[in-house]
Amino acid sequence: SAVISQKPSRDICQRGTSLTIQCQVDSQVTMMFWYRQQPGQSLTLIATANQGSEATYESGFVIDKFPISRPNLTFSTLTVSNMSPEDSSIYLCSARGVQGPMNTEAFFGQGTRLTVV
Amino acid sequence: DQQVKQNSPSLSVQEGRISILNCDYTNSMFDYFLWYKKYPAEGPTFLISISSIKDKNEDGRFTVFLNKSAKHLSLHIVPSQPGDSAVYFCAAELAGRRALTFGSGTRLQVQP
After folding, report:
1. Are A48 and A35 in contact (CB under 8 A)?
2. Chain B: residue nearest A46 by CA?
3. What pLDDT, on a 0 to 100 scale, did the predictor assign at position A53?
4. Which chain B residues are within 8 Å of A100, Cβ to Cβ?
5. Å between A97 CA and nearest CA of chain B
6. Which helix (H) or strand (E) holds A1?
7. Chain B: residue nearest A1 by CA?
8. DSSP label at A26?
9. What is the DSSP string of chain B?
10. How many whole angstroms separate alpha carbon A107 and alpha carbon A33?
11. Distances from the Cα of A51 to the Cα of A30, A32, A103, B36, B90, angstroms
12. What pLDDT, in 10s, does the model give residues B97-106?
């Protein structure tokens, strides 16, 4: 299994500012992801964080708004840039390995609850 | 276009009875399915999974059934306990992609 530490756990930010969320995994994993859960909705994949290269973004998400870094196998950051109230969500870091049997689950951090005022 | 659907936003059952949570999907390329439980202020916690080559997987009180022809899976919890009260998410994986597509969740309330 893997333990994922995510911080901050919550923040209240002014519109127009940026927030960087950090994600630390306690073991080396191959894949890291960032998800968003808007109020009352499901988890939506923002991007796959690639080690040492640009993240792979899903449709509707762009690098200028959600820059992502992954300098090594165990650490990643997500920045929410130029925030507006519509960015108020829970942001979740996830990690997953590709070794072992196919039935390997994805692990999640506790999430960052962001409120933009 | 929601590819994974959980049509019941909430479910209430009595302690000791069976809880059945349902999930439907539209993409026939999904080949791996997972169930997660989520408590408030916590990240999702993995419960159980099933490969598309199987139709049933059991782990203690939790059993997942997969009906590929109907593109439907269900999670059975027997017996239900008050500690099972949480939001349950169904998730699906495209072959080799590793990222997950989630349903909207079902809030389960187990009454003592």
Report:
1. no
2. B99
3. 86
4. none
5. 9
6. none
7. B46
8. S
9. --SEE---SEEEEETTS-EEEEEEE--TTEEEEEEEEE-TTS--EEEEEEETT-SEEEETTEEEEEETTTTEEEEEESS--GGG-EEEEEEEEETTT--EEE---EEEEEE-
10. 10
11. 9, 9, 23, 26, 28
12. 888 999 999 9
Residue A67 tokens read as 């820059």
Number of alpha carbons in the 13 Å side-chain half-sphere of residue A22: 8
pLDDT tens-place string over residues A37-92:
998 889 999 999 988 889 999 999 999 999 999 999 899 999 999 999 999 999 99
- Amino acid B1 reads D
Nearest to B43 among A44, A92, A105 (CB): A92
State the CB neighbour count (10 A cutoff) for residue A85: 9
| B43 in reach of chain A (CB within 8 A) | yes
